[in-house]
Amino acid sequence: MNINTLSANQVEYASCKLPAILYPSKMLAAKEGKLSFHAKTIFRNSLDMTDIANDLIATGVIKDLSASQITSIWEKVNAAVIDRVLNGSIVDCGIGSFYAKIKGRFDSTLSEFKTALHSIDIGFRSSKKVKELASSITPVMAQSKEIVPVILSVYDVETKSDNTLTPDGNIVIKGKSLTVTGTNEDVGLYFVNTDDGSETVVKPDKIAKNSKSELICKIPDLKRGTYNIIIKTQKSATRPLKTTRCSSCKMQFVVN
């Protein structure tokens, strides 16, 4: 928890120390024939609203509510927002706008929505204020050779799909520096429910293939919902890292 980024009078992110690391791109620069690089954020950790509530309490931004009361209010606000969004409204929450979007292909204008072929997801567009704040930040570029896992693709073997998860089926994850290893308690392959934030973890010894370019394992018995996939590892180019590195897949996956 970095409470130094909060003001006691107003919630502000003053430090703006966004950590990032450079990776070589596959394509060569056309003219110079040199490797180019792209930056990726180094995620410090994964937080939930209890952590944010504790931030607010620790800095005195909120003094008369407990963390459980704050999260309870937040859950009620979330429910109200979701209700509006799923009834066709665009809801502006300050940091951005939420809206419903339908995924899947329809064959004609007379086609009907089918849960086997289509799904409803929640989209998000960051607000002008947040974009302006982001544009004012200069990331802190890591100079070390620390390895951060990069997920490039996820494949559900049972449905032969890249956007669904089949409980007790098999999943193939491809990317770079994926090896899930380390002795820290939080190391593992995480399936995070986007509705309630619950986490189901597959530990390294349960991953059938655990290499830097590919992970293959059995999908846990997940309940219906939408999920994010996160890798937490201490993998390094040399000796294991003391701190766990975290990388999440940008896509979301549906368990029907």
Strand content: 25-35%
Structure classification = alpha+beta
Mean pLDDT: 83
Number of strands: 15
Model regions low in confidence, pLDDT < 50 over at least 5 residues? 1-14, 27-31
Tell me the radius of gyration.
20 Å
Note the total helix count. 3
Basic shape: globular
Order of helices and strands: EEHHEEEHEEEEEEEEEE
Q: Termini separation (Å)?
A: 35 Å
Largest sheet: 5 strands, antiparallel
Helical amount:
10-25%
Summarize the structure.
The chain is an alpha+beta fold. It has helices at residues 49-58, 67-85, 128-135; strands at 19-28, 35-41, 91-92, 96-103, 119-126, 140-141, 150-156, 170-176, 188-193, 199-202, 207-210, 214-218, 225-233, 245-248, 253-255.
Structure description:
The protein has 256 residues and is an alpha+beta fold. The chain contains 3 helices and 15 strands. The protein has helices at 49-58, 67-85, 128-135; strands at residues 19-28, 35-41, 91-92, 96-103, 119-126, 140-141, 150-156, 170-176, 188-193, 199-202, 207-210, 214-218, 225-233, 245-248, 253-255. The strands form 4 sheets. Strands 9, 10, 13, 14 and 15 form a 5-stranded antiparallel β-sheet that branches. β11 (207-210) and β12 form a beta hairpin. α1 (49-58) packs across α2 (67-85). It is globular, with a radius of gyration of 20 Å. The two termini are 35 Å apart. Mean pLDDT is 83; it is low at 1-14 and 27-31.
Keywords for this structure?
256 residues; 5-stranded antiparallel β-sheet; 15 strands; disordered N terminus
List the helices and strands and how they pair.
Layout: E1 19-28, E2 35-41, H1 49-58, H2 67-85, E3 91-92, E4 96-103, E5 119-126, H3 128-135, E6 140-141, E7 150-156, E8 170-176, E9 188-193, E10 199-202, E11 207-210, E12 214-218, E13 225-233, E14 245-248, E15 253-255
